[in-house]
Design a protein that fits this description.
single chain, 388 residues, alpha/beta, Aspartate Aminotransferase, domain 2, Aspartate Aminotransferase, domain 1, 2 domains, four-stranded antiparallel sheet, 15 strands, pyridine nucleotide biosynthesis, Kynureninase
């Protein structure tokens, strides 16, 4: 059900998911039959206006959120900003935002920029990932973590950490960029306050696909949206000059919905409707375990950077190698696509929707040749591109 080039083993769905075969037709139909034939009436006739909430509910099924608590739109960076800004207002007497130094840098950039704009004595504090729980205290306003570390795949215990944070009066935000479609997530059972995530990785929404935000029921009508966009207004087409926040999750909408991109995402979600996250997760652990076993047997020069226990790991495996960038470029040239993460990691993602045991063994076999025959030691693989 996915378009995968002949002769390629694709182990980078944790960075960009492949194209579902149904996407071109679905998007083409939207372009011609909706945009083409309906023109501007498509906002009502095709319900483009309701698309962000409708698709948000479909994402919600994959992350343990009930209908009405997830909405789509904008980028993950924007959704991080929204969540942190709203969370800080819920805990105004405190000034510390805690995260870990394994968090994806853009999350930290967005928080740092927000706190500088507030200019009210706030502090962004970073802990080592394994020390987050020890750093929790009553001076912390907001805890913001990415559940699965983008570099190593190390997985935080969402439920335990959230419970401990709440016991100290801390508002908790989870970034699910490497979780949604990769691991089982139950935001309701974990009592998360906010969650954000992207859809171009495991969810196969396409490059630049829109992000999502979840707000817990207890907060939805209490939060003030820091980005008061017209789509989050209670009555956007009243064109009122004074902002009145919409009801519930609708207030977290900002700009005009990216209808074409959301339509592409819908094609992928049709596939996700056919599977259970429990089955996907179980198969993912099996594939990752097999890859670790195969690579360690074949490539003794590589050092495992990911947790060995699959329960503590997302759906990715990273190996450290002194010449990791060149090694990955050589691997890609030989038909296995993964990616490089600074300073020295070769990273591989495993999605059971289109990866099986034969792919895993085949990738390890090619990696063995690249490393042991030093195929990476070629000048053409040394020059770094803008995207690694």
């Amino acid at each position: 059900m996915f378009h995968l080039p002949e002769g390629v083993i694709y182990l980078d769905g944790n960075s960009l998911g492949p194209l579902p075969k149904a996407t071109p037709e679905k998007v083409g139909s939207m372009l011609t039959q909706e945009w083409g034939d309906m023109l501007i009436t498509g906002w009502n006739k095709a319900d483009w206006m309701g698309q962000p909430a409708r698709i948000g509910d479909r994402i919600g099924k994959l992350i343990g959120a009930p209908a009405g608590y997830v909405v789509m739109g904008d980028t993950l960076s924007i959704k991080v900003y929204q969540a942190v800004a709203s969370a800080l207002e819920l805990n105004q007497s405190r000034k510390v935002v805690l995260s870990d130094n394994g968090n994806f840098p853009t999350d930290l950039y967005m928080v740092d920029g927000l706190l500088k704009s507030l200019n009210n004595g706030h502090e962004l504090r970073l802990a080592d990932p394994e020390n987050v729980e020890a750093e929790l205290s009553e001076e912390i306003a907001v805890l913001m973590l990415t559940e699965v570390d983008y570099r190593t795949g190390r997985k935080h215990d969402m439920k335990t950490i959230t419970e401990k944070a709440h016991a100290l009066g801390i508002i908790v935000i989870w970034d699910l960029a490497h979780s949604a479609g990769a691991v089982e997530v139950d935001l309701t059972a974990c009592d998360a306050d906010f969650a954000v995530g992207c859809t171009y990785k495991y969810l196969n929404g396409g490059p630049g696909a829109p992000a999502f935000i979840y707000v817990a029921p207890k907060h939805q009508n209490n939060i003030r949206p820091a980005l008061s966009g017209w789509m989050g207004h209670a009555s956007p087409f009243a064109f009122d000059l004074d902002y009145q926040a919409g009801a519930g999750i609708e207030r977290m909408r900002v700009g005009t919905p990216p209808v074409i991109a959301l339509t592409a995402l819908e094609a992928s979600l049709d596939i996700w409707d056919m599977v259970s996250m429990a089955d996907v997760r179980a198969k993912s652990i099996q594939l990752c375990d097999l890859f670790i076993s195969e690579v360690e047997a074949r490539c003794p020069n590589l050092e495992l950077a990911s947790p060995r226990d699959g329960n503590n790991r997302g759906s990715q495996v990273s190996f450290k190698f002194e010449h990791a960038y060149a090694g990955m470029q050589a691997l890609i040239a030989n038909g296995v696509i993964g990616d490089f993460r600074a300073p020295n990691s070769m990273r591989f993602g495993f999605t059971p929707l289109y990866i099986d045991e034969d792919d895993v063994v085949g990738a390890a076999t090619i990696l063995e040749r690249v490393i042991n025959e030093k195929l990476w030691d070629n000048p053409q693989y040394q020059t770094r591109s803008r995207v690694t």
